[in-house]
Amino acid sequence: MTGVGDLTILVLIFLSVFLLFALIKIFHKLWWVPTHLQYLMSLQGINCRPYKFIHGNTKEISAMSKESLSRHMGLSHEIFPTLQPHIHCWSNLYGKIYVQWYGPQAQLVILEPELVKELLNNRDKASHKPEVSPYAKKILGDGLTMSQGEKWAKMRKLANFAFHGESLKVSSLDYSQQYFS
C-alpha cells in the first residue's frame, strides 16, 4: 500500500505544481503584462483606457457601437462617430494618442496624420504586419499583401514595374490591337 500511496502523493504533487505554474502563467498574461504596460505607457505620457480583467475594453466598445447604430443618423457625411464611436469619444477624452484594450492585448491608437505617416514609412523596420491565421493565409495566398521583408520588397519592385505608366501603355496598345483589329 505504501507504493501506491507514494505514487498517489507524487502524482498529486506533480498536478499541483503544474496547476500552480498554469495559474502563474495566466496571471502573468491576463493581469501583470497589461497593468505593467499601462504603467510604462503612462510614464511616456501616453494616456490609457483603464484595463479591465480578461475582456479589456471590448464590452464598452460593443455597447457604444450598439448604441450609436441604434440612433438615427442625420443627412451628413460625418459617419465616423457612428461607425467608430469609441475612437471618436475616447480621442476627445484622452487625446490623439492613447491605448485601448482588446482583451489583454493593448492597441495603440494614433490619430495624428504626421505620426502615422512616419510610422508607415517603416524605414527602420520598427513595425511589421500582424500574424495571420493559417486558414486566412490559404485563402489570401502568399502574394504582395501577405509577404514581408525581402520577399515583399522583391514583389513590390515587380509590381511597381508592371504598373508603371509606360508598361501600362504598351500592354493596353497590345490588347487594343489584339481585340479591335
Order of secondary-structure elements? HEHHHEEHHHH
The mean pLDDT is 84
Main pleated-sheet profile: 3 strands, mixed
Strand order within the widest beta sheet: 1-2-3
Structural class: mainly alpha
Beta fraction of the residues? 5-15%
| Number of structural domains | 2
Helix content: 55-70%
| Number of H- or I-type helical stretches | 8
The span between the termini is: 96 Å
The low-pLDDT segments are: none
Report Rg.
26 Å
- The strand count comes to 3
Shape: extended
GO molecular function: heme binding; iron ion binding; monooxygenase activity; oxidoreductase activity, acting on paired donors, with incorporation or reduction of molecular oxygen
Protein name: Cytochrome P
Keywords: Heme, Iron, Membrane, Metal-binding, Monooxygenase, Oxidoreductase, Transmembrane, Transmembrane helix
Transmembrane segments: 6-27
Secondary-structure map:
Elements: H1 2-43, E1 47-48, H2 58-70, H3 80-83, H4 85-94, E2 97-102, E3 105-110, H5 113-121, H6 134-140, H7 149-162, H8 165-180
